[in-house]
């Protein structure tokens, strides 16, 4: 086993997901299959090989640190499930 | 003649010569959609009234001599690109009623050139999938054989073009999501070089891999759309400032002096013999056009699926953290604490495949596993890029199959996710390397399913792809062949 049910439960907590028991069984099985498959990367000798984290070939892009017009508040709030005209409204944070 | 069968280039010529109006063209396409949509299911959102208003506006602009490059031409977009005029669902319940506050840069460019936007097309949820079966709003069907998959994740974008429901469409490609459905549906699809086209307003899946591109009826249309879509965008820092060539000038007869590499690793076990026959035949047509065919090697090909299914979910797990029920999208109504609201909104809003990929990505990035999984994959990614660099020292483009098989029945691979992931093996490496790739129709299987040829080139070398594709199109004899749907 590459991954246990307890580990999947832990990762689900980190990812803010709740899985039903039957979902948990199925997904644990599928993750285990996938992780067993990706273990083939261990065959590759990567000593001294740099990591690639982006696909660009042109290096970093710099710009002036200048304030420019951005989304008006009204538009930013328009799609919110709950808002009060000024802010997003969420349930209580402290119990 | 039915106007809906026209290519973008042909329709533009008709409009320019006054042989039809945009309203007539748009009405023809809307009638076509009405006739075939019940069997194909390409659209998530279709807006007839808006489309006709845009067509009227386009006709006015044309009369006033203000016609843009796409003036009055009806297109549609994968539902992954933000449109301020209609919902953008990404094929997900979590964004079911989301209307973005702005247009994606590529949508803005289409509008600026006068295009008519018919609607938004079906896709795997958040572009995660290879069949479009993960769409929360219904699975699109392959126009060549309803009941078979379109491919994915830009499945609706492919089926809509193949079924003549729009003149051309936009798709996005993170691991083959433009090229693979283009191949399975018998149309042209291009994934441009990373950075060639702005990603602003493209709902993010894996930011180091995602790229927007055109899906069209022929190679000329692909070049026409690339002219409009490409270019620097200050709102996407990864977009390139390189000048945009006129891609249509790449469409020249003959391939004399062009070296076409054929990677041995792309013709291995699991390749359907029909696909191999059509692809080998297409490569010989490139030779007939004057190209020199050489064998090349991409030795790390067998690792690209493993690399991709760590890196893409890792990036996705971070990108999809924004769907928390606070600023937009679905919020679970009954949650009474913030944490419960996050958990319930995400758990009820996301589908299975998306949850699974978030979990893989979170795991690969989590303490104790980061080095073994994410970092290891990022190092092997470097070796995959190096493979291409070495290959392109010896050849100008690489020709291969797109997908190991033609389209398959809907539901067939549902229980075996790994088998489905492995079907991406031939398209994934272009995204990992950031190079351009395209699928161009090459022929048909014995029982009538389309098969494409994949062409890949070095960064920013889209022109050589278009030139080779143009020469193949002229010889393959499949252009204009269309599915019988009525």
Can you give a write-up of this model?
The complex is a heterodimer of chains A (95) and B (486). Chain A is an all-alpha fold. Chain A has a domain at 5-43: Histone, subunit A. Chain A contains 3 helices and no strands. Chain A is flat, with a radius of gyration of 22 Å. With 486 residues, chain B is of the alpha/beta class. Chain B has a domain at 3-256: Alpha-Beta Complex (Amidase signature (AS) enzymes). Chain B is built from 15 helices and 11 strands. In chain B, helix 5 (155-162) packs parallel to helix 6. The longest helix of chain B has 24 residues, at 371-394. The model of chain B has no long low-confidence stretch (mean pLDDT 96). Chains A and B meet through helix 1, helix 2 and helix 3 of A and helix 9, helix 10, helix 11, helix 12 and helix 13 of B.
Key terms:
heterodimer, A: 95 residues, mainly alpha, Histone, subunit A, 3 helices, B: 486 residues, alpha/beta, Amidase signature (AS) enzymes, 15 helices, 38% helix
CATH topology of the domain at 5-43 in chain A: Histone, subunit A
Query: Helix tally of chain B?
Result: 15
- Per DSSP E runs of 2 or more residues, the count of β-strands of chain B stands at 11
CATH superfamily of the domain at 3-256 in chain B: Amidase signature (AS) domain
Uncertain residue ranges of chain A: none
Oligomer: heterodimer
Question: From the 3D coordinates, which CATH architecture of the domain at 3-256 in chain B would you assign?
Answer: Alpha-Beta Complex
Strand composition percent of chain B: 5-15%
Low-confidence stretches of chain B: none
- What's the CATH first level of the domain at 5-43 in chain A? Mainly Alpha
Provide a compact summary of the structure.
The complex is a heterodimer of chains A (95) and B (486). By secondary structure, chain A is mostly helical.
């Amino acid at each position: 086993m590459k991954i246990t049910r307890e580990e999947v439960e832990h990762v689900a907590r980190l990812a803010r997901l709740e899985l039903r028991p039957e979902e948990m069984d199925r997904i644990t099985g599928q993750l285990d299959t996938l992780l067993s498959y990706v273990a083939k990367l261990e065959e590759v000798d990567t000593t001294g090989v740099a990591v690639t984290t982006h696909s660009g070939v042109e290096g970093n892009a710099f710009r002036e640190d200048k304030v420019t017009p951005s989304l008006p508040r009204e538009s930013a709030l328009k799609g919110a499930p709950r808002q009060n005209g000024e802010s997003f409204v969420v349930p209580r944070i402290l119990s | 003649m039915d106007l809906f069968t026209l290519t973008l280039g042909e329709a533009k010529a008709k409009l320019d010569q006054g042989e039809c109006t945009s309203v007539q063209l748009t009405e023809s396409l809307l009638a076509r959609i009405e006739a075939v949509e019940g069997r194909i299911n390409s659209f998530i959102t279709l807006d007839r009234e808006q489309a006709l208003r845009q067509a009227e506006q386009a006709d006015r602009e044309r009369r006033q001599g203000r016609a843009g490059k796409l003036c009055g031409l009806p297109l549609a977009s994968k539902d992954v690109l933000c449109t301020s005029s209609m919902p953008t669902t990404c094929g997900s319940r979590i964004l079911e009623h989301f209307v973005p506050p702005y247009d994606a840069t590529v949508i803005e460019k289409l509008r600026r050139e006068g295009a008519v936007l018919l609607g938004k097309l079906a896709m795997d949820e958040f572009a995660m999938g290879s069949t479009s079966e993960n769409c929360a709003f219904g699975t699109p069907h392959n126009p060549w054989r309803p009941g078979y998959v379109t491919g994915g994740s830009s499945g609706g974008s492919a089926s809509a073009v193949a079924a003549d429901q729009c003149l051309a469409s936009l798709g996005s490609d993170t691991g083959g999501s433009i090229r693979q459905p283009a191949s399975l549906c018998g149309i042209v699809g291009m994934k441009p070089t990373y950075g060639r086209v702005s990603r602003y307003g493209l709902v993010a899946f894996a930011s180091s891999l995602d790229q927007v591109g055109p899906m069209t009826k022929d190679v000329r249309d692909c070049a026409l759309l690339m002219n409009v879509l490409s270019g620097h965008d200050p709102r996407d820092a990864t977009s390139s400032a390189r000048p945009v060539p006129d891609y249509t000038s790449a469409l020249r007869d003959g391939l004399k002096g062009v070296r076409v590499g054929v990677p041995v690793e792309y013709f291995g076990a699991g390749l359907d013999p029909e696909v191999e026959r059509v692809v080998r035949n297409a490569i010989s047509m490139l030779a007939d056009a004057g190209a020199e065919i050489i064998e090349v090697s991409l030795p790390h090909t067998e690792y690209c699926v493993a690399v991709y299914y760590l890196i893409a979910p890792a990036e996705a797990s971070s990108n999809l953290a924004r769907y928390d029920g606070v600023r937009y999208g679905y919020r679970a109504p009954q949650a009474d604490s913030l944490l419960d609201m996050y958990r319930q909104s995400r758990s009820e809003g996301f589908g299975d495949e998306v949850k699974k990929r978030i979990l893989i990505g979170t795991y690969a990035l989590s303490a104790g596993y980061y080095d073994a999984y994410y970092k290891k994959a990022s190092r092997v990614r470097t070796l995959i890029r190096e493979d291409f660099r070495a290959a392109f020292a010896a050849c100008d483009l690489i020709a291969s199959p797109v997908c190991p098989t033609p389209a398959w029945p809907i539901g067939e691979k549902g229980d075996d996710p790994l088998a489905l992931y492995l079907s991406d093996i031939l398209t994934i490496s272009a995204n990992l390397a950031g190079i351009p790739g395209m699928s161009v129709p090459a022929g048909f299987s014995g029982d009538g399913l389309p098969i494409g040829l994949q062409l890949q080139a070095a960064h920013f070398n889209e022109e050589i792809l278009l030139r080779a594709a143009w020469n193949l199109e002229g010889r393959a004899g499949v252009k204009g062949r269309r599915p019988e749907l009525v």
